[in-house]
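We close this part of the discussion by returning to an individual protein. Part of our work consisted of pairing the sequence of a single chain with a tokenised description of its backbone. No coordinates are needed to read the tokens, only the vocabulary itself. The amino acid sequence and the backbone structure tokens for this protein are reproduced below:
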Amino acid sequence: MLPDKHPISAPAGRILLLTALLLIAPGAKRDAGLSIGDGAWWNSVGQHEQSGFLDGFLDCYTSDYGGVFDPVTADTQLLRSKVTLYYDEHPRDHGLRVADVIRYLRQPGTSYGKSTHPPSRSDFRGLYWRQQFVVGGHDEQRGFIEGYLACLEVFLPSLRITFSRTPEEYVSAVTRRYGFNEATGDIDERQESAPISKVLRIVRNTPRWE
């Protein structure tokens, strides 16, 4: 258990993620019994997916929820190492959500909560989506989706937004919406300025991606 800290309380009404956070696409090399966003899942995926998860989670936390900025957790690469170290040193906490571990790692005196300032403008847009693919491929993009949805579930359950597809399907849907060509690196200039979060909400329940 987290020493001298209390985990975030479970939301009264959970976001209707349906299969998005519960199902793994057929053929994916992951244990379908893992719960996306906890320690066992964290240790089962690679660093690119972990980094993407943190980017997506913190993008939602600061831009959608309007959470308090914390310099300790702002550097996602440093935060990734700290989260991994925490789970390594606390094997009994593998069932703990990454969100709770981040809370524990935050700068002393700060806690999850809304800022008195307006939510920050998201920097995670089309060009970042392309960069994610170049750096970490589909793993990093999938991690972003997983982290963003995990944050919605923790901080904005009252929205009751339904995401009826798997993270893998949303990766394809977002890529299509941006007009991003993975082979050439080209992206539709008319779409690239849109935040990933906005694109994700547009495509969230599209019946078919093709």
About this structure: The chain is about 50% helix and 0% strand. Residues 126-155 form the longest helix (30 residues). The two ends are 45 Å apart (CA to CA).
